[in-house]
Write a structure and sequence with these properties.
Structural class: alpha+beta
Number of helices: 4
Shape: elongated
Distance between the termini: 31 Å
Largest sheet: 7 strands, antiparallel
Helix content: 25-40%
Amino acid sequence: MTLFLSAPKITNFATLGDGRKRREVAIVESETNRILAIPRVRKNHACHKLVEFDNRQTFYMTTETYRGQKVDLYFPNPRIVDEFEKQKELENLQTELPKMKPQDVLAFYRLLLELLGRQVAFQLSEQLVAYYLIDLRSLLYLLSLRELRSFRGLL
């Protein structure tokens, strides 16, 4: 993923410090490049080969795992932080969509299409709400963080 090209992967875990400075670390799932968290280092136990974070989770240096998942560590930059915030907004919207009434899904879908500059030349039908939900989920990825937050405010 190009997002992480500007931030080198942390391979020397001593650079995390001992926890006094509370350095932030982006924890990224190795396979999917999904950002799992951006916690602060609470304690770096080099002798035990583990790092404790302020979210009470542990990173194991020998296996490079966090909550049982293989991960990579990065020092966060503004792009990584923005991507993490966008990822959280998308997840929140994804959980809200199935709870919406059919007429709200139709209105939300029409608004999203207009925002993206796509023509709505067809009549939206309540019988096709399941299709619109699938399309909504994919179209949400095209929005910026600001647009996602404004959409979340509409729900």
